[in-house]
Specification:
Layout: H1 15-32, H2 47-72
Helix pairs in contact: 1-2
Length: 74
């Protein structure tokens, strides 16, 4: 583990994906009426709210993938 890299194991292969996910997170939060902390610290947010955001993001990503797969089938 001592390679000097961050401890995070979820390194994104495509850097642009991180930006897209951030955008999606804010869109979903806005749709749900949940305020994301300006400083990026989620410790004071209700677990229910962070879970709702994550769940909606997952559903949205699955929809996007299904649409792309359906488009390839033709």
């Amino acid at each position: 583990m001592g390679t000097g890299q961050s401890r995070s194991s979820n390194v994104l292969v495509v850097p642009q994906a991180n930006q897209a996910l951030e955008q999606l997170k804010y869109e979903v939060a806005q749709e749900l009426g949940i305020q994301i902390p300006q400083d990026g610290y989620y410790g004071y947010m209700a677990t229910r709210d962070t879970g709702a955001i994550g769940g909606h993001i997952t559903r949205r990503l699955v929809q996007i993938a299904e649409q792309q797969l359906a488009g390839q089938g033709r």
